[in-house]
Amino acid sequence: MHYGKTEILICKDEHDLGVKAASAVASKMRQLLTAQEKIRMIFAAGESQMTFLDALAQESDIDWNRVICFNMDDFWDMLMPERFTCGYQTRTQLYDMVKPKSFHLIKYNAPDPYKEARRFERLLRSAGQMDILCQGIGTSGHLALNEPYRTDFEDPSWVRVVDIAGQSRRQLIDDPNFKEYGYIPEKGITMTIPALLSAQHIYTMVPLVLKQEILTRVLTVSSPAPDLPATILSTVGSILYLDMNSCPAHIIKKIKTDL
């Protein structure tokens, strides 16, 4: 099935999704590394990425010494303990396991978030072509922290300081990676849509039943909409991984009809 230019693949559950997405990403990494000296990848954090990150860390025969990794976003809070940040999750679940050539995190506790956004943007632009993007979709319909009605699909900036939408904060406060903190900051630092979509190969992993409602909304809108930033995926060649829990009912019905 397809959502515009994006291919939809449906998996049994979040574990099956993690393994299948990791296998596809790892295969693309190996392919690119046969033709390039190094590759550049963008990663996301959050509950939806857990099985994928774990599975990717177990993939063999990848020369991680030639892989440069970037996190797409993080909260901004000078008082937040590191263990509740997006960077901590990706570092402990993936980077510490595979030892990439380098990995770059947003400084969640930078004294000046705007200065930090400019620093991270310079780093991204100087790194060269982004090869692979691995991301999720939030319950607000956001990509990274690009929130409804606050997203410019043609943003000239690659990194911005943003207000985190109330729906995103409600989702994240229940996320097992962040819930112990008991609070989600009101601001974050994020890569913008043009920065994310600059990657040549895009993989979006969206398991779990809490994503079914937003996916139902997104996948019934045929063109980019300001209230649903994830609808931009209809315009790019990419792969969207769902599981049977997150998959909208109208898609499951169509599959059963086609069978």
Provide the CATH architecture: 3-Layer(aba) Sandwich
Count of DSSP-assigned helices = 8
Helical fraction equals 25-40%
First-last Cα distance: 13 Å
User: Which regions have little confidence, pLDDT < 50, spanning 5+ residues?
Assistant: none
Overall mean pLDDT score? 96
- The strand line-up of the biggest sheet is 1-2-11-10-7-3-4-6
Multimeric status of the protein: single chain
Shape: globular
Query: What is the domain total for the residues?
Result: 1
Mind summarizing the main beta sheet? 8 strands, mixed
Strand content: 15-25%
Strand tally: 11
Report the structural category: alpha/beta
**Can you tell me the CATH class?**
Alpha Beta
Helix and strand string, N-terminal first? Answer: EEHEHEEHEHEEHEHEHEH
Question: Which radius of gyration do the C-alpha atoms yield?
Answer: 17 Å
CATH topology: Rossmann fold
